[in-house]
Amino acid sequence: MAEKKKQFAVIGLGRFGGSVCKELYRMGHQVLAIDNNDVKVNEIAPFSTHSVIANSTDEKALKSLGIRNFEYVIVAIGDNIQSSILTTLVLKEMGVENVWVKAQNNYHHKVLDKIGADRIIHPEQDMGIRIAQHITSEKIVDYIELSDDYSIVELLATEKIHNRSLIDLHIRAKYGCTILAIKRDEDLNVSPLPADVIREKDILIVIGHKLDLKRFEEEGM
Ligand code: ADP
Hints:
By secondary structure, the chain is of the alpha/beta class. Helices cover 37% and strands 28% of the residues. The strands form three sheets. Strands 3-2-1-4-5-6 form a six-stranded parallel beta sheet, sandwiched between helices. The protein has a five-stranded antiparallel beta sheet with strand order 7-8-13-10-11. A hairpin with a 4-residue loop joins strand 7 and strand 8. It is elongated. It starts with 6 loop residues before the first strand and ends with a helix. The structure holds adenosine-5'-diphosphate (ADP). Adenosine-5'-diphosphate binds next to helix 1 and strand 2.
């Protein structure tokens, strides 16, 4: 049976919301795109399942779109913090299960947290951290912050670990990090086995405490 595709709604079609919408649609998901600006709605039409002009702070308008049936709603309203907060409040009151919201600043973040936003996103800060990590280390291919303490990093295997097996490297015992997957060209070896061997150009996807990951990156490879 084909994998069940999820239903998403994206509210606010600026640079961030527009990118989220296009990428979800490209991946084959159902995406409802909403903005109160008709130009934005027309622009996104070819890159979404449906696109509608609506004011997301208007509870009736959201109800008529059947928004409560969507598994995920992304609130990507930028500068208008008041609209972002009100929209989030209405969505949570309507019982939408997963409401992900772009925050503009720490004050906005705090309010979103209080009113029940399920995930609060700071795209500029997150991207800034990833670029900084990438630019300062030749080994780091990508970086995802999971919490203040934990991250996932993609590390390019160095010569030091080429042709060595995972068991041989004792990465978990020595560094407390876990190899989630090994990328080799287009292949992704998820949950690799202890006997799997790391080759040149492999990319390791590693999860762990930031300090442990740093130690592994600097000393272990
Ligand atoms: P970015 O920084 O990601 O480019 P913007 O602030 O430029 O974000 O875009 C936010 C979008 O949200 C705009 O297209 C704007 O028209 C839309 N928007 C703002 N308020 C509402 C609202 N109440 N209902 C629907 N869309 C809204």
